[in-house]
Structures are given as C-alpha cells and as structure tokens.
Amino acid sequence: MTAPVLKPFTAIGKLITVILGLTGRLVAGIIGTVFIVLGAVLCITVIGAIAGIPLIIIGVLLVIRCLF
Fold first, then answer.
1. Range of the domain at 38
2. Are 37 and 44 in contact (CB under 8 A)?
3. How far apart are CA 42 and CA 52, in angstroms?
4. d(CA 36, CA 64)
5. Residue 63: inside a domain, yes or no?
6. C-beta neighbour count of 66 within 10 angstroms
7. DSSP per residue over the chain, as a string?
C-alpha cells in the first residue's frame, strides 16, 4: 500500500502506462513530444504556466517511458 503523499505520482504513472498500452511506443513518443511543445508554448504566459508545467512533465514522462 502506498503512502497518501505518493498517490498522485502513482496515478500519473498508471495514466502513462494506459496511454502507452493503448497507442504503442511510437505514437506515445509523438504525443509526449507534442505535450512538451504545447506546454512550452503555454508557459510563455504566466496564466498558461498553470497548465503548461504539468503538460511538460507528462510529456517528458511519456517520452522516457517510450524509450525504455
């Protein structure tokens, strides 16, 4: 059983696993790259950084999961 503090990280990991399982490695890598670019564009504005930073994090995790 995981600690309550780690539950958000576990949920993100499970989400990435589901996305990777549904789409395959190549498409997951492309989606991860798109999330990174979209998150960077959103981070140009301060208001957009609220949504941009999580998109970048999820994109990086997708690309890492795609490679390994």
1. 29-68
2. no
3. 5
4. 12
5. yes
6. 21
7. ---GGGHHHHHHHHHHHHHHHHH-HHHHHHHHHHHHHHHHHHTTSTTTHHHHHHHHHHHHHHHHHHH-
Q: b vs e for 1-28, b when ≥16 Cβ sit within 10 Å of the residue's Cβ?
A: eeeeeeeeeeeeeeebeebbeeeeeeeb
Which pTM was predicted? 0.71
Confidence of residue 20 (pLDDT cuts 50, 70, 90): confident
In total, how many domains does the chain have? Answer: 1
Tokens of 29: 């890598």
Predicted confidence band of residue 39 (pLDDT cuts 50, 70, 90): very high
- C-alpha 63/C-alpha 16 separation (Å) is 10
